[in-house]
Design goal:
20 strands; binds magnesium ion; Adenylosuccinate Synthetase, subunit A, domain 2; binds guanosine-5'-diphosphate; alpha/beta; binds 6-O-phosphoryl inosine monophosphate; 10-stranded mixed beta sheet; Adenylosuccinate Synthetase, Chain A, domain 3
């Protein structure tokens, strides 16, 4: 019956896809609990690379995968993703929640237009229509769910929605004038009725299916999208996404009780990155940041945008521990830091002369925080083969300085690091069965 949550502990792109794929070997079902095609989760197996936007990363292992009701789904992109897997010989055993909301063609148009209007104040969204789709859901009018898309009421529903949105469709440039509305409606109707037909065989009651599996003693892994600091309630508002990325989102999104969750794994990069705008106290705007970006291939999986890079931030990890109830950490991309010395870890903020140990609520205050660092000695540059050898041998084979770095994080967050990733591939992973020697006392 144990439920396991994999949640991003920073600003997204922590390597959740890789960790989910690694853990999926031993689970029966993988459930994506939030977000939409703004996510980009990468899984690398031998020389094959899979970039998932909607389908849970457990699909590569042939596990049952569920797109939960907490998600917003662009049917066109979902069908493309299904076809992509089929071309690679994987028939996904997929369930799409009847409760999930549908992203329609006007949602990305509204998303981009609203960003353009904001100018300098923009959020830096992925432009995938995520905010507008969740807004429609919350307004409880003008929204389409998967259950509508696959039913014969779709025509009636979408006609009403488009009628209500007419003014906005014109204002935001989806159509030129009101004479185009009929044509626009017919295009959507034809296209989306067809998508509905194609998706019919996958739809179901996610909550029922997941809870039955848990009751039968099956292991269910809940895959979060984005990260803690991008959560709509707990992130650096308004520079956030529009869903609950935190671990609690697994319960609300998938319709499972909190008592079903036994393990909550926070995935953290060995440094920090962020795409889009918003505060980032440890950001490196000089050559070390560029070096990390190049070594780590830090370009967005969904949009290709360069990711902002900076040092690891312990305040963020402790914040993620608190708001997610983390039981452990998975540390990724440790290999990327090789050859960089000294390495810095932010252990406090200085805000107008005051020392802060907790991540502030106010985004304006976070903008003003100056990081206080401890320095650690780095280790020499290692090649891909050397990292693979280390991964085979296990934790003890890591360079001593790398072990010091890992154990410093353990001590300061007071959580066990149970997985260390040293490369994008499935095999480039170290699972730590015994707890490390580091005395975790929450400095
Ligand atoms: P996600 O959104 O959290 O699933 O992360 P992304 O897939 O967007 O970004 C993580 C990137 O880092 C992907 O390109 C992964 O293939 C890659 N990656 C994951 N873990 C490691 C690692 O330990 N080392 C290196 N070098 N790359 C990794
Ligand atoms: P994964 O699941 C990193 C960011 C965007 C923007 C903000 C709001 O791959 O970790 P949105 O399009 O959601 O309205 O954009 O959130 N963002 C992500 N950043 N990884 C993601 O997903 C992201 N999904 C959204 O860049 O700053
Ligand atoms: Mg990503």
């Amino acid at each position: 019956m144990p439920g396991i949550v994999v949640v991003g502990a920073q600003f997204g792109d922590e390597g959740k896809g890789k960790i989910v794929d690694f853990l999926a070997e031993k689970v029966d079902m993988v459930v994506r609990y939030n977000g939409g095609s703004n996510a980009g989760h990468t899984v690398k197996v031998e020389n094959k690379v899979f970039k998932f936007h909607l389908i849970p990363s457990g699909a590569v292992r042939g596990k049952k995968v569920v797109c939960s009701g907490g998600m917003v789904i662009n049917p066109q992109e979902l069908i493309e993703e299904i076809r992509f897997l089929e071309r690679r010989g994987i028939e996904p055993d997929l369930v799409v929640s009847l409760r999930a909301h549908v992203t329609l063609p006007y949602h990305p148009v509204f998303d981009r237009a609203s960003e353009k209007r904001k100018g300098e104040e923009k959020i830096g969204t992925t432009g995938k229509g995520i905010g507008p789709t969740y807004s429609d859901k919350m307004k409880r009018v003008e929204a389409i769910r998967i259950e509508d898309l696959v039913s014969n009421k779709f025509k009636e529903k979408i006609s009403k929605v488009l009628e209500a949105k007419k003014k906005w469709l014109i204002e935001y440039g989806a159509i030129k004038d009101k004479n185009e509305i009929e044509k626009y409606k017919n295009v959507i109707l034809n296209e989306y009725t067809n998508y509905g037909e194609k998706l019919k065989k996958y739809v179901g009651d996610d909550s029922l299916i997941i809870n039955e599996a848990l009751d039968q003693g099956k292991k269910v892994l809940f895959e979060g999208a984005q990260g803690t600091l991008l959560d709509v309630d707990h992130g650096t508002y308004p520079y956030v996404t529009s869903s609950n990325a935190v671990a609690g989102g697994a319960c609300t999104g998938a319709g499972v009780g909190p008592n079903k969750i036994k393990r909550i794994i926070g995935v953290a990069k060995a440094y920090t990155t962020r795409v889009g705008r918003g505060p980032f106290p440890t950001e490196l705007k000089e050559e070390t940041g560029d070096l990390i970006r190049e070594k780590g291939g830090e370009y967005g999986t969904t949009t290709g945008r360069p990711r902002r890079c900076g040092w690891l931030d312990i305040l963020i990890l402790n914040y993620a521990k608190r708001v997610n109830g983390l039981t452990e950490l998975a540390l990724t991309k440790l290999d990327v830091l090789s050859g960089i010395t000294p390495l810095k870890i932010c252990v406090a903020y200085n805000l107008n002369g005051k020392k802060l140990k907790n991540f502030p609520v106010s985004t304006e205050l976070v903008e003003k925080c100056k990081p206080k660092y401890v320095e650690l000695e780095g280790w020499s540059d290692l090649g891909r083969e050397e990292w693979r050898e280390i991964a085979k041998k296990g934790y003890d084979a890591l360079p001593q300085e790398a072990k010091n770095y890992v154990e410093e994080i353990e001590r300061r967050v007071n959580l066990p690091i149970k997985i260390i990733s040293v490369g994008p591939g499935r095999e480039e992973t170290i699972e730590i069965k015994k707890e490390l020697k580091s005395k975790r006392e929450g400095i």
